[in-house]
Amino acid sequence: MESATATLRGGLPDRYLTPEDLVELFSLESKETVYEWRKKRTGPPGFRVGKHIRYDPAVVHAWAQERMADDEAA
Predict the structure, then answer these.
(1) Do residues 22 and 74 lie in contact, with contact meaning Cβ atoms separated by under 8 Å?
(2) Neighbour tally for 46: CB within 10 Å
(3) Is 19 exposed, middle or buried (0-12, 13-18, 19+ CB in 10 A)?
(4) How many domains would you assign to the chain?
């Protein structure tokens, strides 16, 4: 039986992430930051499930890796 807390590489949960998850992962002040990222298209790409926004953990991990690479190159 698989654990409910199974994780992918990078320590991310093995489920689609919520804006609240991104707040916790990146130590943001609020969900409004995540919504601003989405509005400005500067954050990880998400998708709608009904009225809810969800994020693929593998895409969030790749987005974070790109940000780190950009910072190292600067």
Answers:
(1) no
(2) 22
(3) buried
(4) 1
3-class DSSP assignment, residue 47:
strand
Residue 6 lies inside a defined structural domain of this protein: no
Give the per-residue pLDDT at 18: 96
pLDDT score at 6: 55
Residue 50: half-sphere exposure toward Cβ, Cα within 13 Å: 1
Q: Confirm whether 37 is domain-assigned.
A: yes
CATH number for 53: 1.10.10.10
What residues contact residue 2 under an 8 Å CB cut-off, 6+ apart? Answer: none
DSSP assignment, residue 54? E
Q: Which residues of the chain have pLDDT under 70?
A: 1-12
Residue 52: count other Cβ atoms within 10 Å of its Cβ.
11
Check residue 72 and give its pLDDT.
Answer: 86
